[in-house]
Amino acid sequence: MKIKSVAVLGAGAVGSYVIWGLSEKSDIRLGVIAEGERAERLKKNGCAINGKTYHPEVWTPDEAHDVDLMVIALKYGSLEGALESIQKVTGEHTVIMSLMNGVDSEEIIGRTVGMEHVLPALIKVASHKEEDGYHFDPPTTLGIIFGEPSAPFDSERVKAVEELFADTGIHFRFTEYIQEEIWCKFCLNVCSNLPQAILGAGVGCYRDSVHMKAISDGLKRELEAVAQAKGIDMSKTESSSGRGSAVPPSARYSTLQDLDAGCHTEIDMFSGELVRMGKELGIPMPYNEYTYHMIKALEEKNDGKFDYTGKEELTWSK
To answer: Distance (Å, rounded) from C-alpha 190 to C-alpha 277?
Structure first.
C-alpha cells in the first residue's frame, strides 16, 4: 500500500500542521475539503502557516472521493455536521485518521463509515492563530501518534503512513498502545486546558500557583478513576506521553483561545464527556462538574447573556 492522495478536513490550527508538513511532498496530491464560500476563500487566499502561504488543492467531498488518506482535524462541535461529507469522501480503501481532541471521535466516525477505515491517532501541537495565519514551533512540536487498536500492529496502512511522513517535517511516532495514548492526550487537555481557561492565565499558572495545581490534580484523579474503570492503563505509554509540546509560560491552550475569541469551546467533549461517563460508572466527578458549568457560563458571558447595561430591575441571590 502506498499513499498517493491526502485530503484534510479542517484547515485550522491542527489541519495547518498537516498541510505544512505535506505541502513540499511532490509525489502526492494534497487537498483541503471545502465547499461554498469557504472553498472560494481557500482557493483565493490559500492557507497562511508560519508566515508562508500554501496552496493545496481544494476539493468538494465528491471530488475527494476515494482518497488514500483522509485527515480529520475539525473542532468537536463540527463533527456531526461533517459526517455526510466524510461518508462521501470515504472509498473502499480510504484510511481515516482523526486528529480531533477527545476519546470518541473515532467511534463516531466509525459508526458512519465503518471502523475498518479508521486508524486511531492523536496530535500534540501548540498551534495558535494570529493576524497573519496559524503559527507553531516545528522543532518543539511532538506531532502525530498513531497505531492499530489491536494486533497485527505493523499493518500495511501503518507502514504506509510512516512512509508518507518519513521525509517531511512532520514529527510522528507509531505505538502499540494507541488507546492509552489517546487517553493520555485527553488527560492533558482536561487537566491543562481547562483550569487556565477559567482563570484566563498562561500555562505558567500551574507552576506558579499551588491552587491551580490542586485544581488540575483534582481533575486528573477523576479522569484516572474513569480510565481505570474502563480498563485503560495509561502507564503503558511512553514517558513523553504525559506532557505536551514545549511552550512558554504565557501560552494559552485551545479552550482559552476559544474564549478569548468569543467562541464556544469543546467543553462538552472534555469535562462534559467525563461527567457523563462518571455517571454511567458511578464515579463522583465534582471537579469536572464544576469546571463544566464554569466554562459553559463563560460561553454564556461571551454570548452577552450577562450584559445588564440599562437594566435597572432589582434582583437578589437565591
So the answer is: 14
Backbone angles phi, psi at 132, to 5 degrees: -100, 20
From 134, 70, 129, 138, select the one nearest 105 (Cα to Cα): 70
Domains of the chain: 5-176 (3.40.50.720), 180-302 (1.10.1040.10)
State whether residue 118 is helix, strand or coil: strand
Cell digits of residue 310: 440599562
Strand, coil or helix: what is 296? helix
> String of b and e for 97-122 (b: at least 16 CB within 10 Å)?
bbbbbbbbbbebbbeebeeebbbbbb
Q: Angle at CA 307, nearest 5°, toward 301 and 310?
A: 175
Q: What is the pLDDT of residues 220-275, one digit of tens each?
A: 999 999 999 999 999 888 765 556 677 889 999 999 999 999 999 999 999 999 99
User: How many CA atoms lie within 13 Å of 17's alpha carbon, on the beta-carbon side?
Assistant: 28
